[in-house]
Amino acid sequence: MQASKRRPYDKVVLTAPVTIPYTRYSVESAQWWVGRALKGLVDAAGIKVSDIDGLCVSSFTLGTDTAIAMTQHFGLCVRWLEHIPLGGASAVAALRHAARAVEAGDADVVACVAGDTNHVDSFRRTLEHFSRFSQDAAYPYGAGGANASFALIAQNYMRTYGVTREDLGKIAVSQRANALRNPHALMKAPLTLEQYLGARPISDPIHLFDCVMPCAGAEAFLVMREDTAKSLGLASARLLGTIERHNAFSKDPVQVRGGWAMDIGDLYGMAGVKPDDIDVLETYDDYPFIVMMQFEDLGFCKKGEGAEFVRNHDLTINGDFPQNTSGGQLSVGQAGAGGAYLGMVEALRQVLGTAGPTQVKNARVALASGFGMINYDRGLSSGAAIIAGASS
């Protein structure tokens, strides 16, 4: 394990994991979902709204509102504020920024919240305005949305490293098995490998069960100093290490790795742990092949060995390599930017021992990763965080 050049966190903790149960469609606004998450944080921590003096918000469907508008909507008066529009990397970025804020004393209690609504037509409208690259380089050719862009990346990745749909199917099937134990998961039916392989194609090689289902929902957690959590009587998890990277490996003709690969030594060096020390892994899972890519880039196997790694491990809650124990976005649903928080909130529950039916036995150290902001040939943002329960 190499030493990290980054300064470790000084007794920064996460606490009060909150999930606002998802629905496929909602007539409510994104502001309503964010507000419910904030109320959930106040209730879970036993604090007053006025105790929150830092706020970070991520959402795609707030319209012209940003985090500053949320302060007035919900009666907050904060001295530290962030609005992070990084898609699937938002939770890691929020945690990193909030952690340094509470270290510095710029805030004592930071609420990190992500949520989105899903009206019948809101997902299409979100895609229309997602990025200028997509509007200019993909949409004019009839390739609308992420599926077509990720299909090109998936084709190259699978061809380069000998990955089969059966390999990717094992990831999807394992996550569905985990989701069946999660009361918040929208996917309630078992998924077999045969069903996965026989599902209708969306954009070859991506088929139906490779795709996340848009929905409405919210996720949240609090960041504070350890002494603050103790004074409030809150069980908390220590923040051991984080990384964040944008536009990594830009000269790769097609993406086969994410920014994690650039900084992984720093992550483990900062945390003082090795990949073998991770008890539970929560990867960002907009597609199964992105999960496999993270197995490689996060140091659990070498580049190109992801398929073999999947074949040799049980990825379910009771398996030898439990990952995406909630079911992940593939089987819980993707609540917009809330999808970035899904793994972080689940990781926090795991190390606190409060995950209930999805709990991994003796989970003490967890890694949660993020990935987001595809234009047309790669995801631009990536990050990861390692957290630990009190007894680790």
From TrEMBL:
Top-rank taxon, per record: Bacteria
Residue ranges of domain Thiolase C-terminal in the record: 268-374
Cited InterPro entries: Thiolase (IPR002155), Thiolase-like (IPR016039), Thiolase_C_2 (IPR055140)
GO molecular function: acetyl-CoA C-acyltransferase activity
Alphabetized SUPFAM superfamilies for the sequence: Thiolase-like
PANTHER family cross-referenced by the UniProt entry: ACETYL-COA C-ACETYLTRANSFERASE, NON-SPECIFIC LIPID-TRANSFER PROTEIN-LIKE 2
Protein name per UniProt: Thiolase family protein
Organism, as annotated: Undibacter mobilis
